[in-house]
Amino acid sequence: MSYILVTNDDGVQAPGILALAQAMRSLGDIRVIAPASNQSASGHKKTLFTDIPIQNVKMADGTPATAVSGSPSDCVALAALGVLEWPARVVVSGINRGSNMGQDITYSGTVTAALEGAIHGVPAVAVSLDNGQADRVEDYRVAAQIAVSIVRRVLEKGLPPFTILNLNIPALPAVPEIRLTRQGIRVYADQLAREGDICQIVGDPPGGLTDEEGTDLWAVHRGYASLTPIHLDMTAHRFVADLAAWDIRL
Question: Which of 103, 175, 176, 227 to pair with 199, CA 20 to 30 A apart?
Fold first, then answer.
């Protein structure tokens, strides 16, 4: 059976994944597998040799789903390894409450769930809404509409191996134009809050953003939806020749 796999990092009962699942039905059958609780900023965490409880649940509209007591990438890995039929036609992760741009992609459970899909040979799209306060399904309707357009083309055209699309959408009442972009650079405002041996990482949302034209940050901050191809090959190809010139010897 061929289906669209829907997942996220905000948790299986988050409004963003419900909006996404409802929208993806226009493209075919869906299956939902997502974290049982919020796993934001969990990165590409993979749980090995440790129990990962799963449970059949229903979303707010009655859609059946599998809730996983693990990370977003665990959800996709479990699906690929036999919890669900495999392969899916496409993995769609989101809709995240808040954007995932610049270096966010290394922290983002939304993005890394999509990357896990690519590792298992399935094209994948990560979808994020630039609104950290979105708490209703209705807040995600425009983003879901754009996601349908992108996923439809992915189903038609496919993606290169180990490549995903990272879609970030501004919080606007109408459908924005789409810009093809490259990854920008975030400037974080993290701070340490400490009481004795107890620490927290706190601080304001990222500020001082580098809005270089053509980046994901530039596009979203100007009211465009940003679509960035992301590849799992992290080799710094332009640095290879310089590194060779170091003439490192043992």
Answer: 103
pLDDT tens sequence across 217-243: 999 999 999 999 999 999 999 999 999
Is the separation of the CB atoms in 183 and 101 below 8 Å?
yes
Q: Which residues contact 101 (CB under 8 A, 6 or more apart)?
A: 128, 168, 183, 184, 186, 215, 216, 217, 220, 226
**Strand pairing of 124-130 and 90-97?**
parallel
**Domains plus CATH for the chain?**
4-184+210-245 (3.40.1210.10)
Output the pTM of the full model: 0.95
Question: How distant, in Å, are the alpha carbons of 33, 73, 74, 77 from that of 48?
Answer: 18, 12, 9, 11
Give the pairing of strands 64-68 and 54-58. Answer: antiparallel
